[in-house]
Amino acid sequence: MRPRTRTVVGCTLLVIALGAGVTGCGAAGDPLSAEPYDAADHISFTGLGEDGEKADPDKPLEVVAEDADGRITDVTAVDAAGRYVAGELSADGTRWHSTSPLAADARYTVRVSTENEDGAPGREVVSFTTGRPTTKRLGVTFGPRAGTYGVGQPVTAELSMPVTDPAQRAVVERALKVRSTPAVSGAWHWVDDRKLHYRPKEYWPAHATVQARSNLEGIRIDDRVRGGSVKPLTLRTRDRVIAVTDAAAHAMTVYRNGEEIKKIPVTTGKPGFETRNGVKVVLAKERFVRMRSSTVGIAEGSAESYDLPVHFATRVTWSGEYVHAAPWSVGSQGYANVSHGCVGMSTDNAQWFFDTVREGDVVEVVNSDGDTMETFGNGYGDWNLSWEKWREGSAVVGAGPDAPRSEDTARLRPQSA
């Protein structure tokens, strides 16, 4: 019986001793035993939503210590289902941010622990609710406007926002459909992050119907972007009209559906102002244009400056290359190249050409000492790329093994008159 009595007494003394120890430590003012202060005024949050709105789950959650003498010691963020949000606390305790995404339509509780310069603990607890992610819509505008065009007119697609990722480009490209009747094979080519051009391997057939449409609506591009609705486009082609200018022979030959219909004496760009070689597409027709040398970088008052009224001007580049009436150079037409880069002809011939061609018809220059027409950015030089090179610009089809040799295009250079 004695041993049992000693054991009981020993335990009682131990409890008393522990109680005294705890009481003594509290009396000494241990900061860890103090009631945590309200840390609301010492920290700030981002990512909780503003003005009563639900938080965007795709935006990170962040906690920042506002007091220079205090720091964050711990942050936990957990939703109603018990799922914790991973995060990272800076070494100096001034900032915590989430490193994993928040869930949509979830309620979160965030518990923040802090301490001040004296080591006293602080505590703040906040709750917030996430909403649905903000989804953007990728719009597409087909071009040109609906109507009838020549066989060289490409179809264009302008995107409402840039798309750079190759996989996302493939999603967009697959949803953009172009069909022609009669049927021909063709491909999209990414001009830049927001623009695509579509052309067949050869020119469109004469009297074809070309339809462009999109299956992009509702399709996921990435986590934040889906395809929007797109207005379809219908184009029709007319006769196959191709005008070939031989700069060395000083002559333009115009063909309709493969048959020569007119040969015209012309003058093209003189040395230093050579007309671009290659295939161009008629962009517009202007019955009157005031051509000034200053618009193409020629100083006023110099030997090359000019200010001319020009009639029956058919535009083939945005930088100012036209086929137009040039009555001042009739004596050189058919014999010498004296222009500043345009193809000049008599007024009668220019009016005939103006009345014969329309937007989308093909104007080609051969045997000039000039550069090759730019592929993009100065009109439609799309046809100056080989089919192999064209297909390389697609995010879907790539280059085919049976494609002809590729060709390079030259730099942009302004021309006129």
Task: Report on the architecture of this protein.
Helix content is 12%, strand content 35%. The strands form 7 sheets. It has a 5-stranded mixed β-sheet, with no helix packed on it. A 4-stranded mixed β-sheet has the order 1-8-7-4, with no helix packed on it. A 4-stranded antiparallel β-sheet has the order 2-3-6-5, with no helix packed on it. The longest helix has 26 residues, at 2-27. The chain is elongated, with a radius of gyration of 37 Å. It has helices at residues 2-27, 166-175, 347-356, 387-392, and strands spanning 37-38, 43-46, 62-65, 71-79, 87-89, 95-98, 107-115, 121-129, 136-138, 140-143, 147-149, 155-159, 176-181, 186-192, 195-200, 209-214, 220-222, 225-227, 233-237, 241-246, 251-256, 259-265, 278-281, 284-292, 307-315, 322-325, 343-345, 362-366. The chain folds into 3 domains: 33-129, Sandwich (Immunoglobulin-like), CATH 2.60.40.3780; 136-237, Immunoglobulin-like (Sandwich); 241-381, Beta Barrel (L,D-transpeptidase catalytic domain-like), CATH 2.40.440. With 417 residues, it is mainly beta. Strand 17 and strand 18 (225-227) form a beta hairpin.
Task: Supply the key terms.
417 residues; mainly beta; Immunoglobulin-like; L,D-transpeptidase catalytic domain-like; 3 domains; 5-stranded mixed sheet; 4-stranded mixed sheet; 28 strands; elongated; disordered N terminus; disordered C terminus
Strand content: 35-45%
Beginning-to-end CA distance, first to last residue: 125 Å
CATH class of the largest domain: Mainly Beta
**What is the fold-level CATH name, i.e. the topology of the largest domain?**
L,D-transpeptidase catalytic domain-like
Number of helical regions: 4
